[in-house]
Amino acid sequence: MIGPVIVEPGQTAVDVAVGRFVTFNVDDVTAWTISSSDEAVVAVTAGKDDGSAQFLPGGEALAPGTAEITLTNMDNTEDKWVVTVTVTE
What we know:
The chain is mainly beta. Helix content is about 0%, strand content about 55%.
């Protein structure tokens, strides 16, 4: 199994193949909301802390196309990170 594509802070674009997962490396997994401009291309999942492990916010590449993923810091809503995800076959 191939691991996820990890997007680092400051990165604004990434290319992934259909079926791959992408995660966004944030400092506090519960402080960031995540949204996709096109859930049919990239379906996103919020980060979480279940008490035994922390999970980064991320998404799954579902279909070829482009989606803008926006992460917003809930502690400072002016702190946004936008990444263009291009999904290929």
